[in-house]
Amino acid sequence: MKKLIVQLLGMCCLISNSILAQDRPNILLVMAEDISNDLACYGMPAVKTPTFDQLAKEGIRYTNCIGSNSICSPSRSALMLGVHQNITNTHNHRSNRKVALEGEYTPITKLLSEAGYTTIVGSRLVMKKGEKIDCNFKHQSTGNYNGTTDFGLFDAKSTALKSDGKPFFAQVQLKVTHRGNWWNDIRAKSAHPVDPEKVVLPPFLADTPEVRLDWATYLDQIEYADMEMKLLMDQLKENGAAENTVIIFMGDNGRANIRGKGYVYDSGLRIPLIIHYPKGFKKPKVDDQLCTFTDISATILDLAHITLPDYCTGSSLFDKEERAYVYSARDIWDEVKDRSRAITTKRFKYIKNYMAEVPYDAHQAYLEYNRPAVHVMRRLNAEGRLNDAQAYFFNTQKEEEELYDLKNDPDELVNLAQNPKYKKELEKLRGYLKEWQSTHKDRGFDEVEAEVAKSVPFVKYLQEHQPARWAQLEEGKLLDLSAEQDDFTKKYYKKKVK
Ligand SMILES: [Ca+2]
């Protein structure tokens, strides 16, 4: 009898969900790789982003979205679970791929599916289909999910954006903005390549022709991403779904450049976020509320009328209450073991570097061949030709504590941690760090020596076997290193991932 009641209840749930589902909007989550707030609608000069600008003009543009990590996979894990990655043991980059999630944590796509949504990953309209998931727990792209024997996260891959009696949730990756062997090609083929003379560099980058060209090439990729966004919107229109689809556009972490991706500075953590919903939002606005990835997960569940599980650490962006701070973390990334935490409020940023002995310029293989500016600036630094803001990155170790006034110093150049005038602020933000760590167990303090690679042969390989290419890198050129990179990456991760 009990079993029958459970079955009946289950059927009732299914029926009510499918009825309710008809009134629920479709949700299209578009994530661009490795971009900071570098769109025209966020004030970036020299780049043209008409589609993103239109979304912002008609929807809500958020100015204080702060990542819980500045690298892809921990951020995506937090988003997929609605729980900070340092609670769920998903914080180390590309870790735990054979380990099932602990406890009751459930992917939001599973909750959406149970509520009557069709869940889709990727789209044929974008470069390389945008099917990346990249979460640090056992999963497969598609199929059933129960967390013990079945680990599928989505129902389908790259199907067209249209609702067949059921609403859809689609997650599409815009990969073009990720550093890759297509960057030079996209620039070469652009009808309107960004003029390096017109770009405005942040003050911590050396102003040289190589650095300007690299920045312009990055903006070319953003322009391409803007075109891809238009293709997705056109498909929604063609399928009669434009009015009833909420579009959430966001970055997954900051730009891959000095002080960006991998760092807890704003260039690594602060990302664009725009929400567009023709049927639901009548008043476009700019929203400065402080928010993070887990709040986006909560918002997605809110839009789908799904009750937020108690374990979630975010809340819907449409709730009245606003968070006081965002707790961000940087843990293991490839061969570099590091541990930094950042507390961001609307006004200040506090950073605690638990491994201050690891320098900012850690000679990480991925960054050696993906950040032309570092090679140029390393040379200029050795020649004593960088100013203090630029040379800071090459200090032999980090400061143990950093405090920045984001209003008066958005580039985070003046560390106020030792300034007695800011003692009160310092203590307040230290208090938030302590509060978070006493409320949650931060798994980033677990001992995980086994996951750290002992050596990285790739840079050495290039130096020894392809000195001409290495010399080009040192000149600040962005190379097509895809073949070596892929080969290296495959071997490297095979060893590293459990
Ligand atoms: Ca990324």
Automatic annotation (TrEMBL):
Sulfatase N-terminal domain sequence ranges: 25-306
Pfam families according to UniProt: Sulfatase
InterPro entries: Alkaline_phosphatase_core_sf (IPR017850), GAG_Ulvan_Degrading_Sulfatases (IPR052701), Sulfatase_N (IPR000917)
Database matches in SUPFAM superfamilies: Alkaline phosphatase-like (SSF53649)
Entry superkingdom: Bacteria
Signal peptide feature range: 1-21
Record key words, sorted: Signal
Annotated protein name in UniProt: Sulfatase
Biological source species: Flammeovirga aprica JL-4
